[in-house]
Design goal:
mainly alpha, transmembrane helix, transmembrane, 7 helices, 2 strands, membrane
Length: 257
């Protein structure tokens, strides 16, 4: 029985994607570089010594990452959004599992890595130009963020959650996936917010009545409870992320021409 994963076929899929995306990818990199340059130039005009502080670069990177990840991820399955595209893509000599893996790696790993790499390269080019002109720039390196273990876990779960949600949205919405996923997300957030307010109100009312039965000497360890809730929240988030990625896989696997 032929293996569902073959390194040569996976490599060929990456080459296929690179050939198709060569022109839009080049234009995107050029546009991103010009955007960084324009913002730095605009920021430096407010300082007579042509200084661009680190906060400006952090804002640029955060903005690009915040909007770039969901938008790019929403195009994960755009190749099968039309009948012609589905015929061309699904007929490629590779298994559904290999196609899904390449799509997942492109959006979940290669895009954020590429975005960060381009940002750093452009940043140092601007640094050189500003140095020649007598100005200075506060270089920001995303990999140097000192977040600690809790901060890294929070960033990872947040990123994975956003990717998984828009990845799933791309698998169920064939057209306008980004907009439709945003609407779906807004609806879910609204429902969860209202449900949370109602639950907290009911719990608060119950606790206020039960508080009279407790001794005044009872000590409540809030920090311990907060830590426990954080672990539970992280675990639930990871389960949801894995569930969305898995659902996206089965949705793609069952895609018909």
């Amino acid at each position: 029985m032929e293996s569902k994963f073959n390194l040569q076929r996976i490599a060929n899929l990456f080459k296929y994607e690179l050939v198709l995306l060569k022109q839009p990818l080049s234009l995107s990199i050029l546009g991103f570089a010009l955007f960084i340059f324009a913002i730095c130039a605009l920021a430096s005009t407010t300082d007579p010594t042509w200084v661009v502080n680190e906060q400006t670069l952090i804002a640029i990177y955060s903005l690009a990452f915040t909007f770039g990840v969901p938008i790019i991820t929403s195009f994960s399955f755009h190749r099968i959004s039309t009948k012609g595209g589905a015929i061309n893509y699904l007929s490629l000599p590779a298994s559904r599992e290999e196609k899904f893996l390449v799509t997942f790696l492109n959006t979940a790993i290669l895009f954020p890595f590429g975005l960060t790499l381009v940002f750093i390269i452009v940043e140092y080019i601007i640094f050189g130009i500003w140095s020649v002109l007598g100005g200075s720039i506060g270089v920001f390196l995303p990999i140097s963020l000192n977040q600690g273990v809790e901060g890294v876990v929070y960033l990872f779960i947040t990123y994975a959650s956003v990717h998984a949600f828009f990845f799933f949205g791309s698998s169920i919405f064939r057209k306008y996936a980004f907009l439709k996923t945003c609407v779906l997300g807004f609806g879910l957030i609204t429902v969860l917010f209202i449900s949370g307010v109602i639950i907290l109100a009911l719990v608060g009312y119950s606790l206020s009545g039960a508080a009279e039965n407790f001794s005044h000497s009872f000590q409540f360890d809030g920090s311990s409870m907060q830590g426990t809730l954080q672990y539970i929240s992280n675990a639930v988030s990871i389960v949801i992320v894995l569930g969305l990625w898995t659902a996206s896989y089965f949705k793609f696997k069952k895609a018909q021409v």
